[in-house]
Write a structure and sequence with these properties.
It is built from twelve helices and 15 strands. It is α/β, with parallel strands linked by helices. The strands form two sheets. It has a nine-stranded mixed sheet with strand order 14-13-12-11-7-10-9-8-15. Strands 3-2-1-4-5-6 form a six-stranded parallel sheet, with helices on both faces. The longest helix is centred in the last third of the chain and has 16 residues.
């Protein structure tokens, strides 16, 4: 739809040119996003300056995000620094008049995400979050079915998402990874945000959460590499999400049960058992031994997900032409609300935490962990990716 004839261009600066930021910068620099132009780069590391000079000749480089924002050489910024800095930089950018695309998660604290959302609303700028797995049509179809009421009132869901396998070397590659002070959590804050977002996107927000977080179960890290969340929804429905970076082979299987049938998303396919009438009505209206009639169908997307490029294109089109955002920045708080609540629950010994919860209590308990956090030596290993790693897309 947005062909080469498009004349308008959006100038964007990438803040944080590590694994993710360099992949984004390469995509934009090589013209993979129609209408998007790489205008500047920023990183605090000397080594990244040298890398950027070689990889992106002619593109201005800034050693601090403050100096980049002050230089006004772009209309938008893409923020790909460690998560704990996201909301602070995004707020400053929005207040300076930039459109903002922030990497997931929007921050590590709901309190910071709330301030970011207020700032974004006041700014009138386009604000989006890189929830690239929303571009997978299988999840969009499941959302349509559930939110459109075709599955009836929800009863239960269960997501096993244990194929986020990571090695010790991955965790050792940067000083900030897998520490409370540097990253603010483990699998729930780094890998699972995609699933937590899709979970709420499809099934809605839970009313309360119980979290079990196993710290350093499979790796030498101070945060969780396995987590189980039990969710309860307003209508009494229940949900479970199990995430791990220490299982191989892992599983990606989402099952949703409702009054009108069941959905299973697995192996890149949606399986749908449809009931021609309400199960509840049947349960109370039939003789012993009967079972409701079901119709079975399978569905698989005709096209692969557009992933990061899809979100970059959508963000560009939103700024240039007012296209509706697929992943509005304000939505980023939802998955963070679930992961923060799960941490709070685990820290308090597995109690049920209401959603929304007391952010002051969360911030205080996180701060205690940050104070006792051990920073690791920085191996400074950054690949300088020229492409998006397959592990960042939906895997089955
Ligand atoms: N959407 C996805 O699929 C996906 C995949 C990977 C990473 N990410 C996200 O991208 C972000 C970065 O992750 P990464 O793996 O690229 O980390 P990384 O450590 O490889 O890169 C982060 C970069 O930010 C720079 N940086 C740190 N503080 C800075 C500051 N104050 N100003 C400017 N630059 C600064 C670092 O020097 C580094 O080069 C994280 O929030 C992560 O969750 C998203």
């Amino acid at each position: 739809m947005w062909g080469d004839c498009m004349s308008e261009r959006l100038k964007i600066a990438v803040i944080g040119v590590g694994n993710m930021g360099s992949a984004h910068a390469h995509s934009i620099f090589s013209g993979k996003v129609n209408g998007l132009q790489l205008a500047a780069l920023c990183d605090i590391r000397e080594a990244r300056k040298d890398y950027c000079a070689a990889a992106f000749p002619g593109i201005p480089f800034f050693e601090s995000w403050e100096s980049l924002l002050a230089a006004s050489c772009a209309e938008a910024v893409l923020i790909a620094v460690p998560h704990r800095l996201h909301a602070m930089i995004a707020c400053a950018a929005l207040e300076s008049g930039y459109h903002v695309l922030v990497e997931k998660p929007v921050d590590i604290r709901v309190s910071a995400a709330l301030k970011l959302n207020e700032t974004a609303q006041r700014s009138g700028r386009v604000f989006a979050v890189m929830l690239n797995q929303r571009t997978n049509a299988l999840y969009a179809r499941a959302r349509e079915i559930v939110q459109g009421g075709e599955l009836g009132e929800l009863k239960r869901n269960s997501w096993i998402i244990t194929n986020w396998y990571r090695t010790q070397s991955y965790y050792d590659s940067s000083d900030w990874r897998a520490t409370w002070s540097g990253e603010g959590g483990g699998v729930l804050i780094n890998q699972a945000p995609h699933n937590l977002d899709l979970w709420q996107w499809i099934c809605g927000m839970p009313q309360s959460v119980v979290g079990f977080c196993d710290v350093g179960k499979y790796h030498r890290i101070e945060v969780e590499d396995e987590a189980t969340i039990f969710a309860r929804y307003a209508n009494g429905a229940t949900g479970t999400l199990i995430a791990s970076t220490g299982e191989y082979p892992g599983t990606n299987r989402l099952e949703i049960s409702g009054d009108r049938g069941k959905l299973v998303l697995e192996n890149g396919q949606l399986k749908w058992w449809k009931l021609n009438r309400s199960e509840k009505e049947y349960r109370f209206g039939q003789s012993p031994g009967g079972e409701p009639e079901t119709e079975y169908c399978e569905w698989a997307p005709a096209h692969p997900e557009t992933a990061h490029l899809g979100i970059l294109q959508n963000f560009t089109n939103a700024v240039l032409y007012g296209e509706e955002l697929l992943s509005p920045g304000e939505d980023g708080i939802r998955e963070l609300m679930i992961s923060n609540a799960a941490y709070l629950s685990a820290w308090k010994g597995g109690v049920a935490v209401p959603v929304p919860f007391d952010t002051e209590e969360f911030d205080r308990m996180l701060e205690e962990r940050i104070q006792h956090s051990k920073r690791k030596p920085d191996r400074g290993e950054q690949a300088g990716n020229t492409a998006y790693l397959s592990r960042w897309s939906v895997r089955w």
